[in-house]
Fold this protein.
Amino acid sequence: QVQLQESGPGLVKPSETLSLSCAVSGKSIRSGYYWGWIRQPPGKALEWIGTIYQSGSTYYKSSLKSRVTISVDTSKNQFSLKLTSVTAADTAIYYCARQGYYHTDPFDFWGRGTMVTVSS
Amino acid sequence: QSALTQPASVSGSPGQSITISCTGSSSDVGGYNFVSWYQQHPGKAPKLMISDVSGRPSGVSSRFSASKSGNTASLTISGLQAEDEADYYCCSYAGGDTLFGGGTKLTVL
């Protein structure tokens, strides 16, 4: 059974960089799957942020592309999210998830999510 | 690209059937057979219910079914049960982007 666990600061100051990691257990991150980040502002809808493959190839939401970097660390079996120049609009629960063998596949395993608040 | 359009809320009585629509465009829902549906209970992570327009992952009840016609996808839940009360989100590949719907709150009366 695949398990994902998000970790990182729960509070980030405006204009700074949000950094989160997702530890994967029960499956090697090199097993041919894509891995993604999704966020959900309080009381609002889900929003896809981006997706990465074991090789490091990435797909990003077009409106966030200039601020997002997703990377993978196969030695630690984890992948990470960096979002720069954050504002209050980036306050959300951030989820990491497994996406299947293709970047068009759905998200079949999710982490529990981690709340990140952007505030001074 | 805008989020996919879903009704804000739907409701039904136990045992009844309900359908949730998800409207996009030819650039997303209508252009690809990569539509999925997620169920989210309060305070929980989303759960995959439908993949690739109408596929049902292992462990998902057969009461959940889905289809697509043109730019609109639909999720149908038959034999409504109290445990089905949750938020439901559609999701579609959009040629490099992935879009979610605005979500639909299902109330079981």
Q: What stands out?
A: The first strand of chain B starts at residue 9 and ends at 12. Chain B has no helices and nine strands. Strands of chain B lie at 9-12, 18-23, 35-40, 47-50, 64-69, 72-77, 86-93, 98-100, 104-108. The interface with chain A takes residues 1, 3, 32, 34, 36, 38, 40, 45-48, 51-52, 57, 89, 91, 93, 96-103 of chain B (CB under 8 Å).
